[in-house]
Specification:
alpha+beta; 2 domains; 10 strands; about 30% helix; about 15% strand; binds iron/sulfur cluster
Length: about 300
């Protein structure tokens, strides 16, 4: 017959998710002291919101009355077609349409299937993807999807780390729960060595202030000179610590149509982008996560690409 948990996973795969697991809610005890230290070191840069809702962040039980389970899923975004290496670098996750709506829709569809599978419609659920104070990678690990690598990404065995994560927090209690996977980084430290700005301070600890992803996407102000010098040709984000990870040799192109880039996106930068107009920016990045940095932010990044004293 198979457990409800197995049936739910089958449905998740059918909906296009690459991995799915279920864990009981509870306090993320293992993360608590680590998270507090990360905050007190200031490694969250000016993402002050990370300081808020700390107790909710450490226990999603507080996100939904009577919550019993967390269902974690992963959706592949590894692009089938990539931009030429000579072009300004844009992080793979931003190639297609913004993932938030796409994943939420899939999570809603999965929940509808779950109701049918369990044969009960008296349970509540909330869906999240990068949208609530929830430790997504921790829950993905707890739900048995993979382990958190030294590059701080969730690594799925034989699949890699180019995945969006999403969660359903529900009052339903699963018949079978998954177990966390062991860390398989071993003695590898390629990501730590490859990081151009030494942002990976110790295994699983990212100093956002030094991270090019943070600086070119989240930072609304000036990029510190020390980091700006190390941007190389990175225009938006940085995947270096993922690209060098040996587990990503298993990455395969996403089947999610919405994550396919447009031709204009793929070739952006072949022509002169120094005079990028707002209108062109709006057209090319209309539905892309690149919009997160806003027009002015992208112009700032373009300006840094043009600065001659970059250390590659
Ligand atoms: S994204 Fe880039 S800058 Fe940030 S930790 Fe990884 S390699 Fe370093
Ligand atoms: S590069 Fe090596 S150490 Fe870093 S996350 Fe991958 S396996 Fe782990």
């Amino acid at each position: 017959m198979g457990s409800f948990t197995e049936k739910i996973k089958e449905k998740a795969y059918h909906l296009g998710f690459s991995a799915c697991g279920i864990a009981p809610v509870g306090t993320a005890n293992t993360e608590s002291s680590f998270f507090n230290r990360w905050l007190s070191n200031g490694f969250h840069a000016d993402m002050e919101y990370m300081e808020n809702y700390k107790d909710i962040r450490l226990n999603p039980e507080k996100l939904l009355d009577g919550a019993k389970s967390v269902i974690s899923v992963a959706l592949n975004y590894y692009p089938k077609q990539k931009r030429d290496t000579g072009l300004p670098y844009i992080a793979y996750y931003a190639y297609g349409k913004d993932y938030h709506k796409i994943i939420k829709k899939k999570l809603q569809a999965l929940w509808q299937e779950i109701i049918i599978i369990i044969g009960e419609d008296n349970h509540s659920a909330r869906y999240f993807t990068d949208s609530a104070p929830i430790l997504e990678r921790y829950w993905a690990w707890k739900c048995g999807l993979g382990w958190i690598g030294k590059n701080t990404n969730l690594i799925i065995p034989k699949k890699g780390s180019f995945f969006f994560l999403g969660e359903i927090v529900t009052t339903w209690e699963a018949d079978v729960y998954d177990s966390p996977q062991k860390n398989r980084c071993g003695i590898c430290s390629r990501c730590i060595e490859a990081c151009p700005t030494k942002a990976l301070r110790s295994p699983k600890c990212l100093d956002a202030r030094r991270c090019i992803s943070y600086q070119t996407i989240e930072n609304r102000g000036k990029i510190p000179d020390e980091i700006a010098k190390q941007l190389g040709n990175r225009l938006y984000g940085c995947d270096t610590c993922q690209i060098v990870c040996p587990w990503n040799r298993f990455s395969s192109g996403t089947e999610e149509q919405a994550f396919s880039p447009t031709e204009e996106f793929i070739t952006f930068g072949k022509e002169n982008i120094n005079d990028l107009s707002r209108e062109r920016y709006n057209r090319i990045f209309a539905h892309s996560a690149v919009k997160r940095v806003k027009y002015e932010g992208l112009l700032r990044n373009i300006h840094h690409l043009n600065t001659k004293n970059h250390e590659k």
